[in-house]
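ok so I'm stuck.
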Amino acid sequence: MPKTDSFETHTERYDAWFETHRYAFESELQAVRTLLPHNGRGVEIGVGTGQFAAKLGIAVGVEPSAAMRQLAGRRGVEAIDGVAEALPLPDASVDYALMVTTVCFLDDIDAAFAEVYRVLAPGGAFVVGLIDRESPLGQEYQRRKRRNVFYKEAVFYSASEVESALRHAGFRKLRAVQTIFEDPEHMIQVDPVKPGYGNGVFVVFRGSKMKRETNPVARRQGGGQ
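replied:
not stuck anymore, here's the structure
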């Protein structure tokens, strides 16, 4: 069941974070841009209020919160009601998919990643931005999450766990970058984007759907593309 209650109740508060923490937001945008394709049909899954999609030129998003979809629409993003584990999109219908700080709110990461694989065209890219639980700052996020109205229900993953989930879903040619090396509350400039993961709290992966490979999850379930 999607964890939307806090986002429905505190939509404006959530949206204001991007302005009050603009250096963190710009750092995250910069990291996502490093790996995001520049062309093709894109979708953001867990589009929220459309902050990332609007800045990155992504016209379509999927979002279970009605209040968030309304704000995304004001930013020019077509926000469709739906969840990551059952995407309301046809097979092979997009060239790339983006998911930013959504992983920690998923009910089933394997089902969600399998769905992304399904809706991507062969050769398509999946870009995932997450809070790395095992980074120094990620461990602090984990300790104080119960005091945060949005993250109290979140399940933070380590970057290595998300990397394994991407491989399990069939994604290959994985790349990773990281940023935000200090508490966003105290940032006075945009942080650099560095390769790999392990130090930055915000990690971005990019994986590719191979052009001639069936989804291994679907194959194990007796189905196919």
